[in-house]
User: Which sequence fits this backbone?
């Protein structure tokens, strides 16, 4: 008898996960391998990619390591070409590479604002534009998962660059879902504070206590909290879900990293 759990499997599928050398991207690559997918792992640091690839292979799946800086158009093209040359198909794209530290708005230069937008939004647009036609040509249908943030949902001092960029990524997700339905679903995750190297740059005993106290679920997130949702969104279990931004953030209704207002 078929089980509902079968609809969470990705057997025979191929996924590209950007920024999968560590953190949320690595956990997502590993979750997809657990579910039966072959995975193209990609970021800038080869040694970390080899670790993620080893974890994929331990699960009996194939892994292809392709170093790629998502900010570089030629490297993005090479990533997609290499994936197709190795596996002959593409089903899933996860736009995970991104991030930016919060910073007082009046100290954020115009160039930084634009760089933040380019890293978090333009690269996801460019990767999606490259991959969607290939997904349709080689697999018939598929899915894109964008890793957005709770900072793109709520308003807070110090988040003018990152919050605005992630809000744009979430809105882009909804627009692309309309463009590509019914063949390719496009969804995003509004991630809360998750224990990764990126969060480590602002984490100490004091900030962690504040963050946990402000989080209804009373803890930081772990990468598997996010990869579980990324698996659901990519899988046939979510085949009727597109254009959605799923919150996985411990119930946050505001940013849990308070920054001072501008000193005017
Ligand atoms: N952790 C959180 O609390 C949190 C909260 C909300 C949203 N998010 C989002 O989650 C995503 C992943 O963050 P994370 O916390 O997992 O960060 P992380 O642990 O620092 O991992 C980031 C990954 O992206 C790669 N990367 C960085 N710059 C890249 C570039 N230019 N091109 C390709 N790959 C690049 C890194 O490897 P290399 O440096 O070797 O390239 C690494 O593999 C980001 O989009 C972030 O905005 C995280």
Assistant:
């Amino acid at each position: 008898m078929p089980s509902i759990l079968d609809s969470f499997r990705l057997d025979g599928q191929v996924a590209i996960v950007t920024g999968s050398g560590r953190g949320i991207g690595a956990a997502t690559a590993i979750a997809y391998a657990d579910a039966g997918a072959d995975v193209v792992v990609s970021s800038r640091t080869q040694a970390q990619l080899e670790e993620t690839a080893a974890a994929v292979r331990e699960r009996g799946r194939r892994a292809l390591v392709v170093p790629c800086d998502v900010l570089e158009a030629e490297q993005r093209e090479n990533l997609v070409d290499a994936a197709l040359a190795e596996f002959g198909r593409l089903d899933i794209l996860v736009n995970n590479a991104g991030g930016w530290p919060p910073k007082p708005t009046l100290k954020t230069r115009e160039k930084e604002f634009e760089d933040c937008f380019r890293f978090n939004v333009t690269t996801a647009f460019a990767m999606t534009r490259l991959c969607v036609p290939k997904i349709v040509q080689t697999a018939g249908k598929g899915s894109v998962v964008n890793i957005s943030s709770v900072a793109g949902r709520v308003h807070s001092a110090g988040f003018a660059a990152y919050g605005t960029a992630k809000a744009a990524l979430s809105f882009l997700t909804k627009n692309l879902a309309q463009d590509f339905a019914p063949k390719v679903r496009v969804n995003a995750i509004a991630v809360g504070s998750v224990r990764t190297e990126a969060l480590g740059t602002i984490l100490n005993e004091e900030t962690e206590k504040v963050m946990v106290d402000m989080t209804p679920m009373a803890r930081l997130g772990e990468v598997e909290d996010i990869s579980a949702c990324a698996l659901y969104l990519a899988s046939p279990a979510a085949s009727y879900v597109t254009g959605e931004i799923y919150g996985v953030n411990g119930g946050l209704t505001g940013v849990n990293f308070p920054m001072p207002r501008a000193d005017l």
